[in-house]
């Protein structure tokens, strides 16, 4: 994970008065600062910030008395946690087995041709981020795609690309 | 809380139901929700109000009814009629026609698009051959109302166990029932409970494994979403039997609805004193906490899952010691799968003999399968063990759509294998699937037709294992990468016979030398496709062709 100056704000100390930090602090106290609550706290922080800024991670580590290296180790181990801010809109294409059998790859191929994005990438204008998931548990509706938390069942490449086009167009 | 109060709650709920002319169940399982079930629920409630029927008819959200492909589903309980693909705009018509005029809305009847005219859903081939133990309440009760669960014999097994059975008797009954763990390996549940029971410790734990990492599987999710109290009851009984007072339900982060419903259930159970201190006025205390997974397949492995609950990176460790001896925080820990826990209350309520009357002698009971892929009726089913694969796929599943030809069924996900056409008559139980080079797995059953390339399937699963390898042991980390490299080469049309030899030499090494089940089973899809579909490998290598037309690379000819 590399950081550029654009992320420099993350290195300033968090403010305890920030209500978002206060919320995390309250949760940490509720878990009685138990070190095994780390993942729960990270879930909460990501819910609040949308991703995990470095200064917030340092704060959590300090409060739980866990060294930054270990916090970082945990954050990078799990797919759920992200160190980078999310794009405005998220598109998650399920590539679980059921969706694979029903043609998820053709959706990904289509999006790559059309928008030049592969899973893990965002469109150049930072509007749409593409991710892949390992089964959303909607296998009966394969292939499944989630666009901004809304599940699109039995998705077709054209349908998804039109929906993305819409987001890009609408937001700009 | 005591038996009398439990009966009172059940009776009150039943009286309420008896006073109604009908109950409309709107499926609020994940599948139907994503096809607009909430709007249907609202519209139906509104239509019932507007028709002035709200005193006679109750409209409730329920868990998964199984026929996910046909959602949103709406069931009329009195007649057992299920309507499919109900758009919110048609709710009024259903209320008018079915509830007022007592006639059927023919074009919305479940499976009417394939010619079905049955009024009662239980007469449909899809439901007729199913036997519901784990899913008995799923699609029947409101998962967010504990009273509904209690009215369906909920928490009765816990009451019986706590007030009339010793811990040894509970374990004895479970051993007698022959229930095997539903998480994949099929380890006898009673034996595992006994092991944990025997270790002396000031503290023990019960963990419910709801990680369900196998892509293409959604059984545990449906149970958690459709009948969460059943899991809590099973865990509490386990806690009593093994001597634990604390339970953790570890649920994957991808299942927010399951997490929400489980949390609601815990709150309700605590409020009624069915969890917490002095349950059923005995000395037994038990609490359950939900832990949310953060997206790592390996965390389904029990030692990795325990590390994850401890807030660490989810890497497995060598066993022994098994969690039964040294698990969470180094204490004896019982870890079972969601579906295993879902079987506990029925086994203890109705007895081991009843349970053994279902299924086969070595694999008693039922198994829930998630049908997906190239099959007409995708969805959730529960069948007695020992049913043949053909019956499952063709009688219940409705066969392959589009006139295509069946090629293989995949069980066990990335740790399992493929079952080809010539073995369709296999009776599905733990041993027979292993005999065919696959495994029962947790219940994902994915059907492939002639349009799937089996080399690409092997590549797909190997890529999954490569990505999900935690990196701790070399045979798995490096081995899966090499296997994937070789398979990709073959898919791309650049494979040689030497590559094939190398694959066959490497696979057993990865199996034998890996630390945990992930690496030990990662070569299975490769080995099983090689066993049954060697000709497809050869077509890629020798003829430079992909018979199914999936692999589309320049060096392959004959590509569509
Ligand atoms: C890589 C890997 C992934 C696993 N994933 C799951 C899972 O998602 N759910 C599950 O119940 N068991 C899973 N298991 C099996 C568990 O380690 C454990 O055996 C099981 O939860 C025991 O429960 P049971 O005895 O009730 O089957 C997995 C095992 C391995 C090696
Ligand atoms: S495989 Fe895509 S939702 Fe399950």
What does this structure look like?
The complex is a heterodimer of chains A (172) and B (560). Chain A has 172 residues and is α+β, with helices and mostly antiparallel strands. Helix content of chain A is 45%, strand content 10%. Chain A contains seven helices and four strands. Chain A has helices at 19-30, 38-49, 54-64, 68-77, 97-101, 104-115, 157-171, and strands at residues 89-94, 128-133, 145-147, 150-152. A four-stranded mixed beta sheet of chain A has the order 2-1-3-4. Chain A is elongated, with a radius of gyration of 18 Å. Chain B is an alpha/beta fold and 560 residues long. Chain B has four domains: 18-121, Glutaredoxin (3-Layer(aba) Sandwich), CATH 3.40.30; 146-355, Rossmann fold; 366-449, Ubiquitin-like (UB roll) (Roll); 454-556, NADH-ubiquinone oxidoreductase 51kDa subunit, iron-sulphur binding domain (de novo design (two linked rop proteins), Up-down Bundle), CATH 1.20.1440.230. Chain B is built from 23 helices and 13 strands. In chain B, helix 11 (228-242) packs across helix 14 and helix 18 (454-468) packs antiparallel against helix 19. The longest helix of chain B is centred in the C-terminal third of the chain and has 18 residues, at 474-491. The model of chain B has no long low-confidence stretch (mean pLDDT 95). Classes of the chains: A alpha+beta (172), B alpha/beta (560). The interface between A and B is large, with 38 and 55 residues. Bound molecules: flavin mononucleotide (FMN) and FE2/S2 (inorganic) cluster (FES). Flavin mononucleotide (FMN) binds next to strand 8 and helix 21 of chain B.
What characteristics describe this protein?
heterodimer, A: 172 residues, alpha+beta, four-stranded mixed sheet, 45% helix, elongated, B: 560 residues, alpha/beta, Glutaredoxin, Rossmann fold, Ubiquitin-like (UB roll), five-stranded mixed sheet, globular, binds flavin mononucleotide, binds FE2/S2 (inorganic) cluster
């Amino acid at each position: 994970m590399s950081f550029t100056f654009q992320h420099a704000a993350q290195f300033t100390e968090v403010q305890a008065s920030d209500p978002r930090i206060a919320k995390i602090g309250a949760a940490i106290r509720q878990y009685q600062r138990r070190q095994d609550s780390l993942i729960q706290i990270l879930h909460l922080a990501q819910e609040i910030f949308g991703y995990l800024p470095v200064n917030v991670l340092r704060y959590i580590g300090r409060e739980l008395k866990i060294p930054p290296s270990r916090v970082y180790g945990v954050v990078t181990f799990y797919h759920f946690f992200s160190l980078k801010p999310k794009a405005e809109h998220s598109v998650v294409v399920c590539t679980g087995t059921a969706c694979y059998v029903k043609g998820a790859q053709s959706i990904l191929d289509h999006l790559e041709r059309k928008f030049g994005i592969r899973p893990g990438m965002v469109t150049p204008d930072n509007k749409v981020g593409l991710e892949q998931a390992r089964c959303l548990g909607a296998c009966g509706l394969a292939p499944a795609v989630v666009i901004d938390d809304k599940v699109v069942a039995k998705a077709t490449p054209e349908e998804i690309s039109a929906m993305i086009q819409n987001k890009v167009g609408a937001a700009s | 809380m005591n038996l009398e109060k439990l009966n009172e709650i059940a009776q009150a709920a039943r009286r309420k139901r008896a006073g109604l002319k009908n109950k409309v169940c709107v499926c609020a399982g994940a599948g139907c929700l994503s096809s607009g079930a909430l709007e249907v629920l609202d519209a139906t409630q509104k239509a019932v109000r507007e028709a002035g029927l709200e005193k006679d008819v109750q409209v409730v959200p329920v868990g998964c009814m199984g026929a996910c492909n046909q959602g949103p589903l709406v069931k009329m309980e009195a007649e057992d009629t299920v309507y499919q693909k109900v758009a919110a705009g048609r709710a009024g018509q259903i209320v008018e026609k079915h509830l007022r005029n007592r006639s059927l809305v023919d074009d919305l009847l479940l499976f009417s698009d394939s010619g079905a005219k049955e009024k009662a859903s239980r007469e449909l081939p899809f439901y007729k051959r199913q036997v519901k133990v784990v899913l008995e309440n799923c699609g029947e009760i409101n998962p967010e109302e504990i009273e509904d669960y209690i009215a369906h014999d909920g928490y009765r097994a816990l009451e019986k166990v706590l007030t009339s059975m010793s811990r040894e008797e509970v374990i004895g009954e479970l051993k007698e029932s022959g229930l095997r763990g539903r998480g994949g390996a099929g380890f006898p549940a009673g034996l595992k409970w006994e092991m944990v029971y025997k270790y002396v410790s000031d503290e023990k734990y019960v963990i419910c494994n709801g990680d369900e990492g196998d892509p293409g599987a959604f059984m545990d999710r449906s149970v958690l979403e459709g009948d969460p109290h059943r899991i809590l009851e099973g865990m509490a009984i386990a806690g009593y039997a093994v001597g634990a007072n604390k339970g953790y339900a570890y649920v994957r982060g991808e299942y927010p609805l399951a997490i929400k419903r489980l949390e609601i259930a815990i709150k309700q159970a605590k409020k009624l004193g069915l969890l917490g201190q002095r349950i059923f006025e005995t000395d037994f205390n038990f609490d359950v906490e939900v832990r949310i997974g953060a997206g790592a397949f390996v965390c389904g492995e029990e030692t990795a899952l325990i590390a994850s609950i401890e807030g660490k990176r989810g890497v497995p460790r060598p066993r022994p010691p098994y969690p039964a001896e040294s698990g969470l925080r180094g204490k004896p820990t019982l870890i079972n799968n969601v579906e295993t826990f879902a079987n506990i209350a029925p086994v203890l309520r109705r007895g081991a003999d009843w349970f053994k009357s279902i299924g086969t002698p070595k694999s008693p009971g039922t198994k829930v399968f998630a049908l997906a892929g190239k099959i007409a009726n995708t969805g959730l089913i529960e069948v007695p063990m020992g049913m043949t694969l053909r019956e499952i796929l063709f009688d219940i599943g409705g066969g392959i759509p589009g006139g295509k030809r069946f090629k293989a069924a995949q069980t066990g996900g990335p740790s399992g294998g493929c079952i080809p056409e010539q073995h369709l008559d296999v009776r599905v139980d733990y041993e027979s699937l292993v005999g065919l080079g696959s495994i029962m797995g947790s219940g994902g059953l994915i059907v492939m037709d002639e349009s799937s390339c089996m080399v690409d399937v092997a590549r797909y699963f190997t890529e999954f294992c490569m990505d999900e390898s935690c990196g701790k042991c070399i045979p798995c980390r490096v081995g899966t990468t090499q296997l994937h490299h070789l398979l990709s080469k073959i898919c791309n049309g650049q494979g040689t016979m030497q590559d094939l030899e190398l694959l066959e030499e490497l696979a057993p090494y990865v199996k034998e030398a890996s630390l945990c089940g992930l690496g030990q089973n990662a070569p299975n899809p490769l080995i099983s496709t090689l066993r049954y579909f060697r000709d497809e490998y050869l077509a890629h290598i020798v003829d430079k062709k992909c018979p199914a037309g999936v692999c589309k690379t320049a060096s392959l000819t004959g590509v569509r």
